């Protein structure tokens, strides 16, 4: 993005039919790559006042990285690598004065370096009564000349067509933005009135307030401030990045079975990758709840922390574990590796099965999910291949569940076939994924094992269970890589 100017620029209209928006006839190939979702790193938490926005990072000119986490106020966190975001944060954006459009808080959703300046896309809220389910959203721009430690407010650039209303979420906000490398910056935003995703754009050379135009019925001609916009799809859980290998924009979003991935080249029609990136049960915002909850997902580059993506990505999201209350929120980072393929099959998306060990609890935990206390109470013990995030079509498979014992004493985490846990006094935590029932090229055996001395189940790729216990049964076959 180039230097911020404040003149209004009228953009030429762009036409797209309803058929375009549903069929995705824009040259995008959603089957040309395989995706491998790696180890879940619990980076921050547990805390109530973290991870309430789309996490963003910038590389620092002097080396290292600065991330931005928010919960009403935005905090800057410095680290040596894009993953190193566990340090104490310092407040850099706070709620605005009473009566202002940011009186309830300022959440920095995206930061973009523009020469020596950093341009910030700030989600703002006012007229809030969170206990009653009420707030009014908008988006503002800000600039920083000290790498995000202090900010100058430029004013709003996205507002909705509605006004604050008792007991409702109103306005438009929760936007993430990206340089499309086509002369425009694009902001994808959530509209509470219909739960929809909308998009606006501004010239890259002039992205200041007043320059933004929303997309409505095939034209980019509605003002960002107060204009209407076409509902593109469900807007919950969305964020945007750009994949430099293809030029496509990449959006997260919810699909049947979990967190999905959408690709677009024309910015308004989307193709979904067939399988989810993460298989998830329906999440429940009211905590505590029996299921886990993943929110505010965003894709960042694993090398530079920005949202211009190479083929090494990071998926970053807020996370509540099963049974966790509001104080049990975490920030989780996961790497995603991409590989081109000319023959996509049932194994397009796989998620790592990791084994963690807590010696004081005598617990080996084989899971595809985050492990609170990772690298502290629980140490990584093994990586056991990848599970599918959806049942393969036309191929015999087995759905595995991640469970924990409901009996007194130390926890016994168990990876077992669907239905086993409920029948044997285990609490179901999540669907771990699917494995093949028969061996295939590129797969590896997966066994359920038991250490009688520690009274602990675990998974292993070795029939002798790596001499850590006895093999109980062959579960099936996971992806080797």
Give your account of this protein's structure.
With about 475 residues, the chain is mostly beta strands. It folds into 2 domains: about 30-340, Glycosyl hydrolase domain, family 43 (Tachylectin-2, Chain A, 5 Propeller); about 355-480, no CATH class. Helix content is about 0%, strand content about 50%. It has 2 helices and 33 strands. The strands form 7 sheets. Strands 1, 21, 23, 24, 25, 26 and 27 form a 7-stranded mixed beta sheet that branches. Strands 16, 17, 18, 19, 20 and 22 form a 6-stranded mixed beta sheet that branches. Strands 6, 7, 8, 9 and 10 form a 5-stranded mixed beta sheet that branches. The longest helix is centred in the N-terminal third of the chain and has 6 residues, at about 20-25. The two termini are about 35 Å apart.
